[in-house]
Design a protein that fits this description.
The complex is a heterodimer of chains A (188) and B (171). With 188 residues, chain A is an all-alpha fold. Chain A is built from 8 helices and no strands. The model of chain A has no long low-confidence stretch (mean pLDDT 83). The chains are: A mainly alpha (188), B mainly alpha (171). Chain A: It is a multi-pass membrane protein.
Chain lengths: 188, 171
């Protein structure tokens, strides 16, 4: 079948006038010569057992970037975005609560005094700058997490999802939380 | 004459197209290689990998579970929303009565527990590190139980959370 077709095509080429190299076609030839007509497939395949293939795939997957990748995203969103800091401040405050709770429970065994009276007395004897610093370190995450928490509840209702609003509100929350934290730390 | 001019024009444009094409290929290659060779600053090493089933299996879809899905999500939001008045009240009233203070403590504990749970779920994938996930989840449960007991002790023997914070703050 194919051999027959080769014969007929060759015959057709001979009988037909060659219109390929007419000036009319030269432009087309010039255009076409830029594209490679030969197909090359530089891929060699080899048979693998299922276990080998799986271990190879697992090894390849280990080369993938690990999330969260802190370099490749917009710093405004990943580093200063309120969402990441919401988690950081929340973990900080909850971590403080958990540490205090655990310490309070073992206090009778270790002889620590974590009752409110001794805590207040111990805190009161600290220098003013240290007191202010500790208060700010507690007050700023508290204010930040509170304001941003309300914003996230609004997000959950589908409110305030425009990109500009998110960016603008992010800056407002940073400002408000720092001012609020300073107020709670030094004027309360 | 005209045809000659046209053909050379076409040739030029074809050359230009080719060089453009090469350029864009080059640019893409540069871009791609730049992406692949960024300094990898992983916070953590990649967790262990294993292929479950065959190579070509689709990602398994977990069975739907409202108590781990929508109900859990709604419960989280309710706890967060409930904390809003409980947080504002001591600022407005100066302090909280013992009952409300106990409610605040319980809400804070549950809110913290749910928050830590989300952190564990996000950063310790069950598929990759099932044992670590189990360890941290049970560790969190134990910690929450301990802190719950501690807060109960604190609330019943001391002056309460808001009053303590107030006294320390004014000290």
């Amino acid at each position: 079948m194919i051999a027959q077709r080769v014969g007929t095509t060759a015959l057709r080429r001979v009988t037909k006038p060659n219109t390929f190299f007419t000036p009319h076609n030269l432009a087309k030839v010039a255009l076409a010569s830029q594209f490679s007509a030969t197909q090359t497939r530089p891929v060699a395949t080899q048979k693998l057992t299922v276990d080998d293939a799986n271990s190879l795939l697992a090894k390849q997957r280990l080369q993938r970037p690990v999330s969260p990748h802190l370099d490749i995203y917009d710093k405004m969103q990943t580093w200063y975005g309120a969402s990441a800091w919401h988690r950081i401040t929340g973990c900080g405050l909850s971590g403080a609560l958990y540490l205090f709770g655990a310490a309070y429970l073992v206090a009778p065994l270790t002889g620590w005094h974590l009752e409110s009276a001794s805590l207040a007395a111990a805190f009161g004897s600290l220098p003013l700058a240290v007191k202010g610093g500790v208060k700010f370190l507690l007050a700023w995450p508290f204010v930040f997490h509170s304001i941003n928490g309300v914003r996230h509840l609004a997000y959950d209702l589908g409110v305030g999802f425009q990109k500009r609003t998110i960016v603008k509100q992010g800056w407002y929350i940073w400002g408000a939380s720092v001012i609020g934290g300073l107020y709670l730390a030094f004027f309360m | 004459m005209a045809s000659i001019a046209r053909s050379s024009l076409l040739r030029q444009s074809a050359f230009a197209a080719k060089s453009l094409r090469q350029q864009s290929v080059l640019q893409n290659a540069v871009r791609t290689s730049a992406f692949h060779t960024t300094s990898r600053r992983n916070i953590l090493p990649p967790p262990p990998q294993r292929v479950e089933g065959t190579v070509n299996d689709a990602v398994p879809v977990p069975p739907p579970s409202p108590s781990h899905g929508s109900y859990h999500w709604t419960f989280e939001r309710l706890m967060s929303a409930g904390l809003v008045p409980l947080t504002i009240a001591p600022f407005a009233a100066g302090s909280l009565n013992p009952t409300l203070d106990a409610v605040l403590c319980a809400a804070l504990l549950i809110h913290s527990h749910l928050g830590f749970q989300s952190v564990i779920i996000d950063y310790i994938p069950k598929k990759r590190m099932p044992n670590a996930r189990k360890f941290f989840m049970w560790g969190l449960n134990a910690a929450t139980a301990i802190v719950g007991l501690a807060l109960y002790e604190f609330e019943t023997t001391d002056v309460g959370l808001t009053e303590t914070i107030k006294r320390v703050w004014k000290a």
